[in-house]
Design brief:
This protein is of the alpha/beta class. It folds into two domains: about 5-115 and about 245-315, Bordetella uptake gene, domain 1 (D-Maltodextrin-Binding Protein, domain 2, 3-Layer(aba) Sandwich); about 115-240, D-Maltodextrin-Binding Protein, domain 2 (3-Layer(aba) Sandwich). The protein is about 35% helix and about 20% strand. The chain has ten helices and ten strands. The protein has helices at about 35-45, 65-75, 90-95, 130-140, 155-165, 185-190, 205-210, 260-275, 275-285, 295-315; strands at about 25, 55-60, 80-85, 105-125, 145-150, 175-180, 200, 215-220, 245-255, 290. Helix 3 (about 90-95) packs across helix 10. The two termini are about 40 Å apart.
Length: about 325
Amino acid sequence: MNLKAIGLSAVFALSAGAVSAAECIAPANPGGGWDFTCRQIGKILYDIGQVDSPVQVVNMAGAGGGLAFSHVVNERSDDPDLIVAASSATTTRLAQNAFGGMTADMVRFVGAIGADPGVIVVAADSEYQTLSDLLDAIAAAPGTLTFAGGSAAGGFDHLKPLMLTKAAGIDDVRAIKYIGVDGGADAITQTVGGFTQAMTGDMSEIVGFLKSGEVRALAVLTEERVPGFEDIPTAVEQGYDVVAVNWRGLYVPKNISDEQFQAWADKLAAVAASDDWKAAMEANGLAPFTKVGGDFQSWIDGVVAQTEELSREIGVIK
Protein backbone atom coordinates (compact mmCIF):
# COMPACT_ATOMS: atom_id res chain seq x y z
CA MET A 1 0.00 0.00 0.00
CA ASN A 2 1.31 3.48 -0.81
CA LEU A 3 1.15 6.43 1.58
CA LYS A 4 -1.83 8.01 -0.20
CA ALA A 5 -3.90 5.02 0.76
CA ILE A 6 -3.32 5.48 4.46
CA GLY A 7 -6.27 7.79 4.95
CA LEU A 8 -8.69 5.62 3.01
CA SER A 9 -9.37 3.10 5.75
CA ALA A 10 -12.62 3.61 7.60
CA VAL A 11 -12.34 4.83 11.17
CA PHE A 12 -14.20 2.97 13.87
CA ALA A 13 -14.31 3.64 17.59
CA LEU A 14 -12.07 1.43 19.68
CA SER A 15 -13.92 -0.31 22.44
CA ALA A 16 -12.71 -2.80 24.99
CA GLY A 17 -13.91 -5.50 22.61
CA ALA A 18 -12.92 -6.06 19.00
CA VAL A 19 -11.61 -3.33 16.77
CA SER A 20 -13.30 -3.00 13.43
CA ALA A 21 -10.50 -1.62 11.27
CA ALA A 22 -7.15 -1.59 13.02
CA GLU A 23 -4.07 -0.31 11.18
CA CYS A 24 -0.43 -0.84 12.09
CA ILE A 25 2.25 1.44 10.69
CA ALA A 26 5.70 -0.12 10.31
CA PRO A 27 8.11 2.86 10.11
CA ALA A 28 10.42 1.01 7.70
CA ASN A 29 10.45 -1.03 4.53
CA PRO A 30 9.25 -4.66 4.56
CA GLY A 31 11.58 -7.19 6.12
CA GLY A 32 12.93 -5.35 9.16
CA GLY A 33 12.17 -5.48 12.85
CA TRP A 34 9.35 -2.93 12.80
CA ASP A 35 7.72 -4.71 9.87
CA PHE A 36 7.98 -7.99 11.79
CA THR A 37 6.34 -6.37 14.82
CA CYS A 38 3.36 -5.10 12.85
CA ARG A 39 2.82 -8.25 10.84
CA GLN A 40 3.25 -10.74 13.69
CA ILE A 41 1.29 -8.81 16.30
CA GLY A 42 -1.34 -7.85 13.73
CA LYS A 43 -1.81 -11.45 12.60
CA ILE A 44 -2.08 -12.77 16.14
CA LEU A 45 -4.49 -10.02 17.21
CA TYR A 46 -6.84 -11.29 14.50
CA ASP A 47 -6.15 -15.01 15.01
CA ILE A 48 -6.99 -14.86 18.73
CA GLY A 49 -10.07 -12.72 18.22
CA GLN A 50 -8.84 -9.41 19.63
CA VAL A 51 -9.83 -7.63 16.41
CA ASP A 52 -12.65 -8.66 14.10
CA SER A 53 -10.86 -8.09 10.79
CA PRO A 54 -7.23 -8.49 9.69
CA VAL A 55 -4.95 -5.67 10.76
CA GLN A 56 -3.88 -3.49 7.85
CA VAL A 57 -0.09 -3.05 7.75
CA VAL A 58 1.31 0.11 6.15
CA ASN A 59 5.05 0.50 5.58
CA MET A 60 6.15 4.11 6.03
CA ALA A 61 9.93 4.24 5.83
CA GLY A 62 11.83 7.47 6.32
CA ALA A 63 14.08 9.35 8.74
CA GLY A 64 14.72 6.30 10.92
CA GLY A 65 11.09 6.23 12.05
CA GLY A 66 10.70 10.01 12.02
CA LEU A 67 8.36 10.13 9.04
CA ALA A 68 5.85 7.81 10.68
CA PHE A 69 6.17 9.61 14.01
CA SER A 70 5.47 12.96 12.38
CA HIS A 71 2.50 11.49 10.49
CA VAL A 72 0.95 10.18 13.69
CA VAL A 73 1.54 13.40 15.64
CA ASN A 74 0.39 15.80 12.94
CA GLU A 75 -2.34 13.87 11.13
CA ARG A 76 -3.58 10.98 13.27
CA SER A 77 -3.24 12.23 16.84
CA ASP A 78 -6.69 11.04 17.94
CA ASP A 79 -7.08 7.91 15.79
CA PRO A 80 -8.12 5.11 18.19
CA ASP A 81 -7.61 2.36 15.62
CA LEU A 82 -3.96 3.10 14.88
CA ILE A 83 -0.95 1.29 16.34
CA VAL A 84 2.67 1.88 15.37
CA ALA A 85 5.62 -0.48 15.67
CA ALA A 86 8.43 0.75 17.91
CA SER A 87 11.62 -0.45 19.55
CA SER A 88 14.55 0.81 21.59
CA ALA A 89 15.74 2.65 18.48
CA THR A 90 12.56 4.74 18.60
CA THR A 91 13.14 6.05 22.10
CA THR A 92 16.88 6.48 21.56
CA ARG A 93 16.28 8.69 18.52
CA LEU A 94 13.59 10.67 20.31
CA ALA A 95 15.86 11.20 23.30
CA GLN A 96 18.62 12.42 20.98
CA ASN A 97 16.31 14.85 19.13
CA ALA A 98 16.68 12.95 15.86
CA PHE A 99 13.06 13.64 14.87
CA GLY A 100 13.36 17.38 14.36
CA GLY A 101 12.26 18.59 17.78
CA MET A 102 9.54 15.99 18.29
CA THR A 103 9.53 14.38 21.72
CA ALA A 104 8.49 11.06 23.19
CA ASP A 105 5.52 12.58 25.02
CA MET A 106 3.82 13.41 21.71
CA VAL A 107 2.55 9.80 21.56
CA ARG A 108 1.67 7.15 24.14
CA PHE A 109 3.74 4.00 24.41
CA VAL A 110 1.28 1.19 24.94
CA GLY A 111 3.45 -1.87 25.42
CA ALA A 112 6.33 -4.19 24.61
CA ILE A 113 5.90 -7.95 24.44
CA GLY A 114 9.29 -9.27 23.44
CA ALA A 115 12.89 -8.21 23.33
CA ASP A 116 16.29 -8.97 21.94
CA PRO A 117 18.31 -8.90 25.18
CA GLY A 118 21.40 -6.77 25.46
CA VAL A 119 24.61 -8.64 26.22
CA ILE A 120 28.22 -7.99 27.13
CA VAL A 121 30.66 -10.58 25.81
CA VAL A 122 34.40 -11.13 25.76
CA ALA A 123 36.62 -13.47 23.80
CA ALA A 124 36.67 -17.03 25.10
CA ASP A 125 40.26 -16.64 26.25
CA SER A 126 39.71 -13.24 27.90
CA GLU A 127 41.16 -12.62 31.34
CA TYR A 128 37.81 -11.18 32.42
CA GLN A 129 35.73 -13.98 33.91
CA THR A 130 32.87 -11.90 35.29
CA LEU A 131 31.20 -8.57 34.66
CA SER A 132 32.74 -7.27 37.87
CA ASP A 133 36.21 -8.22 36.59
CA LEU A 134 35.63 -6.12 33.48
CA LEU A 135 34.10 -3.14 35.26
CA ASP A 136 36.76 -3.17 37.98
CA ALA A 137 39.43 -3.05 35.28
CA ILE A 138 37.69 -0.08 33.64
CA ALA A 139 37.43 1.70 36.99
CA ALA A 140 41.14 1.19 37.57
CA ALA A 141 42.14 2.50 34.12
CA PRO A 142 39.09 3.91 32.27
CA GLY A 143 40.79 4.71 28.98
CA THR A 144 42.57 1.42 28.45
CA LEU A 145 39.66 -0.90 27.61
CA THR A 146 37.55 -0.63 24.47
CA PHE A 147 34.08 -1.93 23.60
CA ALA A 148 32.99 -2.76 20.06
CA GLY A 149 29.36 -2.53 19.00
CA GLY A 150 27.20 -2.60 15.92
CA SER A 151 25.74 0.89 16.30
CA ALA A 152 27.33 4.26 15.71
CA ALA A 153 28.70 6.31 18.58
CA GLY A 154 25.73 7.39 20.69
CA GLY A 155 23.60 4.50 19.47
CA PHE A 156 22.01 1.87 21.69
CA ASP A 157 25.00 -0.49 21.67
CA HIS A 158 27.21 2.39 22.83
CA LEU A 159 24.81 3.31 25.62
CA LYS A 160 24.72 -0.19 27.16
CA PRO A 161 28.27 -0.20 28.58
CA LEU A 162 27.80 3.42 29.67
CA MET A 163 24.77 2.38 31.73
CA LEU A 164 26.85 -0.38 33.31
CA THR A 165 29.82 1.81 34.10
CA LYS A 166 27.48 4.39 35.64
CA ALA A 167 25.95 1.64 37.78
CA ALA A 168 29.47 0.67 38.82
CA GLY A 169 30.15 4.20 40.04
CA ILE A 170 32.28 5.27 37.07
CA ASP A 171 31.02 8.78 36.37
CA ASP A 172 33.30 9.89 33.53
CA VAL A 173 31.52 8.14 30.65
CA ARG A 174 33.59 10.07 28.11
CA ALA A 175 36.55 8.00 29.22
CA ILE A 176 34.85 4.77 28.12
CA LYS A 177 36.23 3.88 24.71
CA TYR A 178 33.84 2.57 22.07
CA ILE A 179 34.25 1.59 18.41
CA GLY A 180 31.14 1.42 16.24
CA VAL A 181 31.38 -1.10 13.39
CA ASP A 182 29.00 -2.48 10.79
CA GLY A 183 26.88 -4.87 12.82
CA GLY A 184 27.26 -7.29 15.69
CA ALA A 185 29.27 -9.91 13.79
CA ASP A 186 31.97 -7.35 13.00
CA ALA A 187 31.98 -6.24 16.62
CA ILE A 188 32.55 -9.81 17.77
CA THR A 189 35.33 -10.22 15.22
CA GLN A 190 37.05 -7.16 16.68
CA THR A 191 36.82 -8.65 20.16
CA VAL A 192 37.80 -12.19 19.29
CA GLY A 193 40.75 -10.77 17.36
CA GLY A 194 41.94 -8.84 20.40
CA PHE A 195 41.40 -5.39 18.89
CA THR A 196 38.81 -4.60 21.58
CA GLN A 197 38.36 -6.08 25.03
CA ALA A 198 34.58 -6.55 24.99
CA MET A 199 31.58 -6.51 22.69
CA THR A 200 28.25 -4.85 23.39
CA GLY A 201 25.28 -6.06 21.38
CA ASP A 202 22.15 -8.20 21.34
CA MET A 203 21.59 -11.86 22.10
CA SER A 204 20.55 -12.65 18.53
CA GLU A 205 23.96 -11.47 17.32
CA ILE A 206 26.03 -13.74 19.55
CA VAL A 207 24.18 -17.08 19.56
CA GLY A 208 26.29 -18.65 16.80
CA PHE A 209 29.52 -17.41 18.38
CA LEU A 210 28.48 -18.76 21.77
CA LYS A 211 27.75 -22.17 20.27
CA SER A 212 31.10 -22.23 18.49
CA GLY A 213 32.90 -21.34 21.73
CA GLU A 214 34.50 -18.17 20.36
CA VAL A 215 33.06 -15.85 23.00
CA ARG A 216 31.94 -15.89 26.63
CA ALA A 217 28.97 -13.85 27.75
CA LEU A 218 29.60 -11.96 30.99
CA ALA A 219 26.05 -10.64 31.38
CA VAL A 220 22.65 -10.46 29.81
CA LEU A 221 20.89 -7.14 30.37
CA THR A 222 17.44 -8.45 31.26
CA GLU A 223 15.53 -8.61 34.53
CA GLU A 224 15.70 -12.42 34.56
CA ARG A 225 17.89 -14.99 32.86
CA VAL A 226 16.92 -15.73 29.26
CA PRO A 227 15.24 -19.08 28.54
CA GLY A 228 17.66 -21.30 26.68
CA PHE A 229 20.63 -19.30 27.97
CA GLU A 230 20.19 -19.86 31.70
CA ASP A 231 23.94 -20.11 32.23
CA ILE A 232 24.40 -16.41 31.45
CA PRO A 233 23.87 -14.29 34.58
CA THR A 234 22.04 -10.99 34.46
CA ALA A 235 23.80 -7.74 35.28
CA VAL A 236 21.13 -7.18 37.94
CA GLU A 237 22.00 -10.33 39.87
CA GLN A 238 25.67 -9.33 39.70
CA GLY A 239 24.88 -6.08 41.49
CA TYR A 240 24.43 -3.67 38.55
CA ASP A 241 20.86 -2.42 38.16
CA VAL A 242 20.83 -2.20 34.37
CA VAL A 243 18.15 -3.54 32.03
CA ALA A 244 18.85 -2.77 28.37
CA VAL A 245 16.92 -4.69 25.77
CA ASN A 246 15.93 -4.01 22.19
CA TRP A 247 12.24 -4.29 22.96
CA ARG A 248 9.55 -4.86 20.34
CA GLY A 249 6.32 -3.03 20.92
CA LEU A 250 3.86 -0.33 19.95
CA TYR A 251 2.90 3.27 20.45
CA VAL A 252 -0.48 4.86 19.83
CA PRO A 253 -1.64 8.43 19.17
CA LYS A 254 -1.42 10.84 22.09
CA ASN A 255 -5.01 12.05 22.11
CA ILE A 256 -6.93 8.82 22.30
CA SER A 257 -8.84 8.31 25.54
CA ASP A 258 -7.49 6.49 28.58
CA GLU A 259 -10.09 3.78 27.96
CA GLN A 260 -8.91 3.33 24.37
CA PHE A 261 -5.28 3.27 25.51
CA GLN A 262 -6.07 0.59 28.10
CA ALA A 263 -8.01 -1.43 25.52
CA TRP A 264 -4.90 -1.61 23.34
CA ALA A 265 -2.82 -2.54 26.39
CA ASP A 266 -5.21 -5.39 27.17
CA LYS A 267 -5.14 -6.61 23.57
CA LEU A 268 -1.36 -6.55 23.52
CA ALA A 269 -1.25 -8.46 26.80
CA ALA A 270 -3.50 -11.10 25.23
CA VAL A 271 -1.06 -11.45 22.33
CA ALA A 272 1.85 -11.80 24.79
CA ALA A 273 0.04 -14.62 26.60
CA SER A 274 -0.79 -16.54 23.42
CA ASP A 275 0.96 -19.68 22.23
CA ASP A 276 1.19 -18.06 18.80
CA TRP A 277 3.38 -15.23 20.12
CA LYS A 278 5.54 -17.60 22.16
CA ALA A 279 6.20 -19.56 18.97
CA ALA A 280 6.98 -16.35 17.06
CA MET A 281 9.47 -15.27 19.74
CA GLU A 282 11.21 -18.64 19.71
CA ALA A 283 11.43 -18.64 15.92
CA ASN A 284 12.92 -15.14 15.86
CA GLY A 285 15.29 -15.24 18.84
CA LEU A 286 13.27 -12.98 21.11
CA ALA A 287 13.04 -13.29 24.88
CA PRO A 288 9.90 -12.69 26.96
CA PHE A 289 9.59 -9.03 27.93
CA THR A 290 6.06 -7.96 28.72
CA LYS A 291 5.28 -4.44 29.91
CA VAL A 292 1.95 -2.93 28.91
CA GLY A 293 -0.18 0.11 29.67
CA GLY A 294 0.81 2.63 32.30
CA ASP A 295 3.69 0.49 33.59
CA PHE A 296 5.31 0.53 30.16
CA GLN A 297 4.78 4.26 29.68
CA SER A 298 6.42 4.95 33.05
CA TRP A 299 9.35 2.71 32.14
CA ILE A 300 9.74 4.48 28.79
CA ASP A 301 9.79 7.87 30.53
CA GLY A 302 12.72 6.66 32.63
CA VAL A 303 14.56 5.20 29.63
CA VAL A 304 14.22 8.44 27.65
CA ALA A 305 15.48 10.53 30.58
CA GLN A 306 18.48 8.24 31.08
CA THR A 307 19.28 8.23 27.36
CA GLU A 308 19.12 12.03 27.23
CA GLU A 309 21.49 12.30 30.19
CA LEU A 310 24.03 9.85 28.78
CA SER A 311 23.79 11.40 25.30
CA ARG A 312 24.59 14.84 26.70
CA GLU A 313 27.51 13.49 28.68
CA ILE A 314 29.12 11.95 25.60
CA GLY A 315 28.33 14.96 23.43
CA VAL A 316 25.73 13.44 21.10
CA ILE A 317 23.30 16.21 22.06
CA LYS A 318 23.89 19.55 23.75
